[in-house]
Amino acid sequence: MKKFFLTSTGTGIGKTFVAQVLIQQLLKKKYSVRAIKPILTGFNKRNERSNDAGLLLNSMGLDISSENISSISPWTFKHPLSPDLAAFREGSRISLRELVGFCRQSYDADVVLIEGIGGIMVPLNQNNTVLDWIISLNAPVLLIVGSYLGTFSHTLTAIGMLKEKAVNIAGIIINESTNQPISSEETAEVISRFTKNIPIQVLPRCTTPEHASDLLPLINRYL
Ligand SMILES: Nc1ncnc2c1ncn2[C@@H]1O[C@H](COP(=O)(O)OP(=O)(O)OP(=O)(O)O)[C@@H](O)[C@H]1O
Ligand SMILES: [Mg+2]
After folding, report:
1. How many structural domains does the chain have?
2. Residue 207 alpha carbon to ligand 2 centre in Å
3. Is the distance from the beta carbon of residue 15 to the nearest atom of ligand 1 less than 6 Å?
Protein backbone atom coordinates (compact mmCIF):
# COMPACT_ATOMS: atom_id res chain seq x y z
CA MET A 1 0.00 0.00 0.00
CA LYS A 2 1.41 3.39 -1.02
CA LYS A 3 -0.04 6.63 0.30
CA PHE A 4 0.16 10.08 -1.27
CA PHE A 5 -0.95 13.39 0.21
CA LEU A 6 -2.53 15.80 -2.27
CA THR A 7 -2.16 19.42 -1.35
CA SER A 8 -2.06 22.74 -3.14
CA THR A 9 -1.35 26.42 -2.88
CA GLY A 10 -4.96 27.22 -2.01
CA THR A 11 -8.55 26.24 -2.42
CA GLY A 12 -10.09 25.41 -5.80
CA ILE A 13 -6.78 24.71 -7.52
CA GLY A 14 -7.57 21.12 -8.53
CA LYS A 15 -6.79 18.61 -5.75
CA THR A 16 -10.05 16.71 -6.20
CA PHE A 17 -9.81 16.83 -9.99
CA VAL A 18 -6.27 15.41 -9.88
CA ALA A 19 -7.44 12.72 -7.42
CA GLN A 20 -10.26 11.80 -9.82
CA VAL A 21 -7.76 11.60 -12.70
CA LEU A 22 -5.35 9.44 -10.68
CA ILE A 23 -8.13 7.12 -9.49
CA GLN A 24 -9.27 6.47 -13.05
CA GLN A 25 -5.78 6.05 -14.47
CA LEU A 26 -4.74 3.71 -11.62
CA LEU A 27 -7.90 1.62 -11.92
CA LYS A 28 -7.26 1.30 -15.65
CA LYS A 29 -3.82 -0.15 -14.82
CA LYS A 30 -5.51 -2.62 -12.42
CA TYR A 31 -4.29 -0.99 -9.22
CA SER A 32 -6.81 -0.86 -6.38
CA VAL A 33 -7.27 2.68 -5.11
CA ARG A 34 -8.79 4.32 -2.07
CA ALA A 35 -9.19 8.09 -1.93
CA ILE A 36 -10.10 9.88 1.27
CA LYS A 37 -10.96 13.50 2.04
CA PRO A 38 -10.81 13.43 5.84
CA ILE A 39 -12.02 17.01 6.41
CA LEU A 40 -14.93 18.30 4.37
CA THR A 41 -16.32 21.80 4.95
CA GLY A 42 -19.36 23.39 3.32
CA PHE A 43 -21.03 19.99 3.42
CA ASN A 44 -24.79 19.51 3.33
CA LYS A 45 -27.23 16.89 2.14
CA ARG A 46 -28.04 18.86 -1.03
CA ASN A 47 -24.46 18.90 -2.32
CA GLU A 48 -23.81 15.25 -1.50
CA ARG A 49 -23.03 14.29 -5.10
CA SER A 50 -21.03 17.37 -6.03
CA ASN A 51 -18.91 17.74 -2.91
CA ASP A 52 -15.40 16.28 -2.81
CA ALA A 53 -16.44 13.08 -1.01
CA GLY A 54 -19.22 12.46 -3.54
CA LEU A 55 -16.87 13.04 -6.48
CA LEU A 56 -14.19 10.73 -5.05
CA LEU A 57 -16.70 7.97 -4.24
CA ASN A 58 -18.12 8.24 -7.74
CA SER A 59 -14.64 7.88 -9.29
CA MET A 60 -14.00 4.84 -7.09
CA GLY A 61 -17.28 3.35 -8.31
CA LEU A 62 -18.83 3.44 -4.83
CA ASP A 63 -22.31 4.54 -3.78
CA ILE A 64 -22.66 8.10 -2.53
CA SER A 65 -24.30 6.96 0.69
CA SER A 66 -24.07 8.62 4.11
CA GLU A 67 -22.13 5.62 5.33
CA ASN A 68 -19.55 5.82 2.52
CA ILE A 69 -19.23 9.58 2.89
CA SER A 70 -18.46 9.31 6.60
CA SER A 71 -16.02 6.48 5.95
CA ILE A 72 -13.86 8.71 3.73
CA SER A 73 -14.76 12.07 5.33
CA PRO A 74 -15.25 11.59 9.07
CA TRP A 75 -14.88 15.33 9.78
CA THR A 76 -17.71 17.07 7.93
CA PHE A 77 -18.85 20.62 8.69
CA LYS A 78 -21.60 22.68 7.16
CA HIS A 79 -19.87 26.07 7.14
CA PRO A 80 -17.73 26.71 4.02
CA LEU A 81 -14.86 28.01 6.16
CA SER A 82 -11.36 26.95 7.11
CA PRO A 83 -11.47 23.77 9.24
CA ASP A 84 -10.64 25.50 12.54
CA LEU A 85 -13.48 28.01 12.12
CA ALA A 86 -15.96 25.54 10.61
CA ALA A 87 -15.40 23.21 13.58
CA PHE A 88 -15.54 26.06 16.10
CA ARG A 89 -18.91 27.23 14.71
CA GLU A 90 -20.23 23.75 15.49
CA GLY A 91 -18.71 23.65 18.96
CA SER A 92 -16.03 21.11 18.08
CA ARG A 93 -12.30 20.97 17.48
CA ILE A 94 -10.25 18.87 15.08
CA SER A 95 -7.58 16.85 16.84
CA LEU A 96 -4.39 16.46 14.80
CA ARG A 97 -3.67 13.20 16.60
CA GLU A 98 -7.04 11.72 15.63
CA LEU A 99 -6.75 13.03 12.07
CA VAL A 100 -3.32 11.49 11.61
CA GLY A 101 -4.52 8.27 13.25
CA PHE A 102 -7.36 8.06 10.74
CA CYS A 103 -4.99 8.59 7.79
CA ARG A 104 -2.40 6.14 9.14
CA GLN A 105 -4.79 3.23 9.20
CA SER A 106 -4.08 0.40 6.84
CA TYR A 107 -6.31 0.25 3.77
CA ASP A 108 -6.96 -2.71 1.55
CA ALA A 109 -5.69 -0.91 -1.55
CA ASP A 110 -2.50 -0.60 -3.59
CA VAL A 111 -2.69 3.19 -3.56
CA VAL A 112 -4.27 5.55 -1.03
CA LEU A 113 -4.81 9.17 -2.02
CA ILE A 114 -5.34 11.60 0.84
CA GLU A 115 -6.80 14.93 -0.19
CA GLY A 116 -5.90 17.71 2.23
CA ILE A 117 -7.96 20.86 2.51
CA GLY A 118 -7.25 24.27 1.00
CA GLY A 119 -3.53 25.06 0.87
CA ILE A 120 -0.66 23.89 3.05
CA MET A 121 -0.96 26.64 5.69
CA VAL A 122 -4.69 26.35 6.34
CA PRO A 123 -5.36 26.16 10.10
CA LEU A 124 -6.86 22.88 11.31
CA ASN A 125 -7.37 24.06 14.87
CA GLN A 126 -5.91 26.70 17.23
CA ASN A 127 -2.36 25.37 16.91
CA ASN A 128 -1.96 23.21 13.82
CA THR A 129 -2.03 23.69 10.07
CA VAL A 130 -2.25 21.30 7.12
CA LEU A 131 1.56 21.39 7.08
CA ASP A 132 1.63 19.76 10.55
CA TRP A 133 -0.70 17.07 9.20
CA ILE A 134 1.65 16.47 6.24
CA ILE A 135 4.73 16.32 8.50
CA SER A 136 3.08 13.87 10.92
CA LEU A 137 1.91 11.58 8.14
CA ASN A 138 5.22 11.45 6.32
CA ALA A 139 3.65 10.41 2.99
CA PRO A 140 5.02 11.72 -0.32
CA VAL A 141 3.26 14.89 -1.39
CA LEU A 142 1.74 15.80 -4.73
CA LEU A 143 1.61 19.57 -4.92
CA ILE A 144 -1.10 20.88 -7.23
CA VAL A 145 -0.63 24.44 -8.40
CA GLY A 146 -2.21 26.70 -11.03
CA SER A 147 -0.87 28.63 -14.00
CA TYR A 148 -2.67 31.88 -13.14
CA LEU A 149 -0.95 35.23 -12.68
CA GLY A 150 0.59 35.04 -9.20
CA THR A 151 1.25 31.33 -9.14
CA PHE A 152 5.04 31.65 -9.06
CA SER A 153 5.12 33.24 -5.65
CA HIS A 154 2.35 31.00 -4.27
CA THR A 155 4.06 27.88 -5.61
CA LEU A 156 7.60 28.73 -4.54
CA THR A 157 6.38 29.79 -1.10
CA ALA A 158 4.59 26.47 -0.66
CA ILE A 159 7.65 24.53 -1.84
CA GLY A 160 9.87 26.55 0.50
CA MET A 161 7.67 25.64 3.49
CA LEU A 162 7.62 21.96 2.54
CA LYS A 163 11.38 21.83 1.93
CA GLU A 164 12.10 23.57 5.21
CA LYS A 165 10.33 20.70 6.96
CA ALA A 166 12.10 18.11 4.76
CA VAL A 167 8.81 16.92 3.27
CA ASN A 168 9.21 14.56 0.33
CA ILE A 169 7.57 16.24 -2.67
CA ALA A 170 6.86 13.41 -5.13
CA GLY A 171 5.85 15.84 -7.82
CA ILE A 172 4.31 19.13 -8.81
CA ILE A 173 1.27 19.25 -11.07
CA ILE A 174 0.72 22.48 -12.94
CA ASN A 175 -3.02 22.33 -13.37
CA GLU A 176 -3.93 24.73 -16.15
CA SER A 177 -5.93 27.70 -14.85
CA THR A 178 -8.88 29.11 -16.81
CA ASN A 179 -7.18 32.44 -17.05
CA GLN A 180 -3.45 32.13 -17.66
CA PRO A 181 -1.18 34.87 -19.01
CA ILE A 182 1.40 32.37 -20.31
CA SER A 183 1.27 28.69 -21.26
CA SER A 184 1.32 26.03 -18.54
CA GLU A 185 4.54 24.69 -20.09
CA GLU A 186 6.21 28.07 -19.65
CA THR A 187 4.93 28.16 -16.06
CA ALA A 188 6.45 24.71 -15.51
CA GLU A 189 9.72 25.80 -17.04
CA VAL A 190 10.02 28.83 -14.73
CA ILE A 191 9.10 26.83 -11.62
CA SER A 192 11.54 24.05 -12.53
CA ARG A 193 14.42 26.54 -12.49
CA PHE A 194 13.85 27.01 -8.76
CA THR A 195 12.96 23.48 -7.77
CA LYS A 196 15.74 21.48 -9.45
CA ASN A 197 15.01 17.79 -8.95
CA ILE A 198 11.29 17.76 -8.22
CA PRO A 199 9.38 16.16 -11.12
CA ILE A 200 6.85 18.52 -12.70
CA GLN A 201 3.94 17.68 -14.95
CA VAL A 202 1.39 19.84 -16.71
CA LEU A 203 -2.30 18.94 -16.64
CA PRO A 204 -4.14 20.78 -19.43
CA ARG A 205 -7.80 21.65 -18.91
CA CYS A 206 -10.11 18.90 -20.04
CA THR A 207 -13.83 18.28 -20.13
CA THR A 208 -13.79 15.38 -17.65
CA PRO A 209 -11.12 13.51 -15.66
CA GLU A 210 -11.33 10.64 -18.21
CA HIS A 211 -9.92 12.99 -20.85
CA ALA A 212 -6.93 14.07 -18.78
CA SER A 213 -3.32 13.55 -19.79
CA ASP A 214 -1.37 10.71 -18.14
CA LEU A 215 -0.34 11.64 -14.58
CA LEU A 216 1.01 8.22 -13.62
CA PRO A 217 4.63 9.03 -14.60
CA LEU A 218 4.72 11.22 -11.48
CA ILE A 219 3.97 8.36 -9.11
CA ASN A 220 5.14 5.29 -11.05
CA ARG A 221 8.44 5.09 -9.22
CA TYR A 222 6.57 4.54 -5.94
CA LEU A 223 4.32 1.74 -7.21
N1 LIG B 1 -7.61 20.32 -15.48
C2 LIG B 1 -8.89 20.67 -15.29
N3 LIG B 1 -9.73 20.69 -16.36
C4 LIG B 1 -11.02 21.06 -16.20
N5 LIG B 1 -11.59 21.42 -15.03
C6 LIG B 1 -10.79 21.40 -13.93
C7 LIG B 1 -9.42 21.02 -14.01
N8 LIG B 1 -8.89 21.10 -12.77
C9 LIG B 1 -9.89 21.50 -11.96
N10 LIG B 1 -11.03 21.67 -12.64
C11 LIG B 1 -12.32 22.13 -12.10
O12 LIG B 1 -12.05 23.26 -11.29
C13 LIG B 1 -12.83 23.25 -10.11
C14 LIG B 1 -11.92 23.28 -8.86
O15 LIG B 1 -11.14 22.08 -8.83
P16 LIG B 1 -11.12 21.13 -7.56
O17 LIG B 1 -12.47 21.01 -6.96
O18 LIG B 1 -10.43 19.88 -7.97
O19 LIG B 1 -10.19 21.99 -6.58
P20 LIG B 1 -9.74 21.62 -5.11
O21 LIG B 1 -8.33 22.07 -4.96
O22 LIG B 1 -10.03 20.20 -4.82
O23 LIG B 1 -10.71 22.57 -4.25
P24 LIG B 1 -11.05 22.46 -2.68
O25 LIG B 1 -10.04 23.32 -2.00
O26 LIG B 1 -12.44 23.03 -2.62
O27 LIG B 1 -11.00 21.03 -2.27
C28 LIG B 1 -13.71 22.01 -10.19
O29 LIG B 1 -14.96 22.35 -10.74
C30 LIG B 1 -12.94 21.09 -11.14
O31 LIG B 1 -13.77 20.18 -11.83
MG1 LIG C 1 -11.25 19.37 -3.35
Report:
1. 1
2. 17
3. yes
Q: What is the DSSP string of the chain?
A: -EEEEEEESSTTSSHHHHHHHHHHHHHHTT--EEEE--EE-S--GGGTTTSHHHHHHHHHT----HHHHHHH--EE-SS-S-HHHHHHHTT----HHHHHHHHHS--SSSEEEEEEEEETT-BSSSS-BHHHHHHHH---EEEEE--STTHHHHHHHHHHHHHHTT--EEEEEEE--SS-SS-HHHHHHHHHHHHTTS-EEEE---SSGGGPPP-GGGTGGG-
**Protein residue with least CA distance to atom 9, ligand 1:** 14
Residue 18 alpha carbon, nearest atom of ligand 1: 18
Q: Tell me the pTM.
A: 0.98
**CB of residue 203 inside a 6 A radius of ligand 1:** yes
Residue 111 lies inside a defined structural domain of this protein: yes
Contact between residue 218 and residue 199 where contact means Cβ atoms under 8 Å apart: yes
Domain that holds residue 42: 2-150+163-175+202-222
The verdict on residue 10 lying in a domain is yes
Classify residue 195: in a domain, yes or no.
no
155 lies in some domain:
no
- Residues 81-109 have pLDDT tens digits of 999 999 999 999 999 999 999 999 999 99
